[in-house]
Predict the 3D structure of the following.
Amino acid sequence: MANFAIGTIKETTMNYLDPRADIVFRKIFGEHKNLCISLLNSLLPLPKDRPIESIEYMDPDVLPESPELKNSVVDVRCQDAKGRTFIVEMQMYWTDCFFMRVLLNASKAFANQLGKGGPFSSLQPVYSLCLLNENMSMTKEYKDEYRHVFLIKHEHHKDLVMDGMTFVMVELQKFRKSSPNRVHKKLADLWLSFLTMMDENREGRIPEELEENHDVNQAVECLKKISLTPEERYIYDKYWDSISCERTLLEGKYESGKEEGITIGKEEGIAIGKAQQAKDMAKTLKDEGVPIEIIMKSSGLSREEIERL
């Protein structure tokens, strides 16, 4: 059973798609503006007097200005009426290079606002929301903190913040462990409960608390009604196969890198292992017929690097 309070689960059950899969996540938050707005307003540290009121979706490909830089595909990218850009990513597993990719995506989105000869005053903030199904390796000591906000701050005077880019990382595993047998009321917690409700709950039992909130209930109804084409179903099934494959490769190559590090230096060995595991994982997914956009997102490799494998 999933970790929900007793008496909050409805008896009727169905088999639902998992909202964390890229194709499902995009159908919910990339096709329903009000749901995307609700998710962003609940989890981002926006000024109280400047909530998101409306958005327009943008191409999820974050294109670089320089052809030497890599393209990245994010789950949802949108802009509000104030010109602020919002990037949303659902990531099923953590690697240390993911944080740098998130930084690069936000930086490109920020820089690409400025046309040739445009004034710097026209630049608007970029917010990056990353929903991580696994914990970040750097936050093991912060056992009870699952939402992390990263800002550009002065080294000594923390009240001096450089506006421009804000990053929010949410560790879903920590959320699940921090809230067993608890009825959620805050909107942020309801959204995180929605995203994690399929864990150990494949029968599709819907917590009543999710259906009591208008926005989250609409997402639940969307989940009930989503139907995939044969091609989309293939992508969905391959997505979960790739997640399993990625984890296996990550574990094996990480250990291999550590062993090699005994002779050539521990840190260098781990770095070699991680670089090789990304290539091996990408080749395996490519051989399995997984779409190249998913491979790019999963491995961090460019399209050109994958095509050379």
